[in-house]
Amino acid sequence: MNSRKLFLVLLIGISFESVFAQQDGYWDKERATTKEIIVSARDRIVIKTEDLPTGTTEVVYRITLLDENQQMANSLVSVLKSIPDPTGISQGSAGAVFLLSKISGDDKCKYAIFNNDALASEYKKSGETAKACYIQNVPVNKDAKGLSIDRSLCILPNSNAMWFGFESKNWIMKQKIILEVVPWVNKRLSRGWTLENRKLIINQCKASETAKSLRDSDDFCVCVLDKVQKEYKFQEFQKLLSIEKSKAYKDFENACLKETGASNTIYLDLRNQSRDLVIQGQYGSAIDKTLVIVVNGQANAADYNTLGYAYIMTKQYGKAIKFLKEGEILDSSELLIQMNLAHAYLFNKDFKSAKSIYKKYQFQNVNNSLSWTQKVKLDFETFKKVGLPSGDFDRVLRLFEN
């Protein structure tokens, strides 16, 4: 059976598979390399391919040396239209390409492939091939092969090209070499989510306050990663403005908190931690924990009260008033919020607003056994111990005598 018939049989045998196989990827003919190179006698030359598209997992290349007046019968791109997904049947694909490389001249050359420009430049100067990712030391007048990212160092995740180095074996005449390189692009990987890029998102997630508050953040961060990958290509996500990226993270985190079932436990844990930190006098840390609840839109009236009290204890009275008033909107009957709001007004030099609240609730209890007046006195004792300004305390207590 001659070469033409053998090639036709090969294509018929694989054409039925190609309909399904190519669903996972495609031959990128738009970014294929086709170059005609003239190499001077006894010379070396390096040719860089066109940029390999993101998601390239395999390339098929063909090298053909032609005599002066010969023409190529078929381009490699046209051949590959009939070649299926290279995964699993790479040898068959390369074999078909090889059969179409039958036209060649009598000249021969050696060649080597490099995965970075520095090594290729060194080859051009010295002929050094020790660090080449592929070497053809036996002179050939034609060659065709497939290289896979799984089995060759010629295709690296962080490299966007290949460098072919040719050495002429004609000691008298120049040579004409045709180089064709066609990349196979995996559709999923073409979105740019390499292993390193996925690790980047996971690490960013684990550094977030939300993830830190979880006992086990693995499932949560994997959920966030999945949502980022589905919504964006990696390059698109990296180009977002900081405010856009923060908004996207927040939306994904909120969705994942619900989906992973962590939303019910995370905020309970945060509330317990904040309460313990207040008891220990670590008010700054308590603020940080409680703000996570607030920022994620899960705060209740008690959370705002905790935040307001911690701000009072750290002498941030304006912030205390702001958050206590937000808590008042959620539950205007919660007297602990009202009392802390009065305290905040008092320290913020707004005695009139403070007086109004102190007087309004002086005959009520803040819980089953503690009166409003008793609670105010206990708070004032605490404030004195931590060094908050106490000049108006007696003035407030006299209000309860009338």
TrEMBL record:
Going by the entry's taxonomy, the superkingdom of the source organism is recorded as Bacteria
Q: Which UniProt keywords apply?
A: Signal
Q: Which Gene3D superfamilies match?
A: Tetratricopeptide repeat domain (1.25.40.10)
Q: Where is the signal peptide?
A: 1-21
**UniProt-recorded name of the protein:** Tetratricopeptide repeat protein
What organism is the protein native to? Flavobacterium soyangense
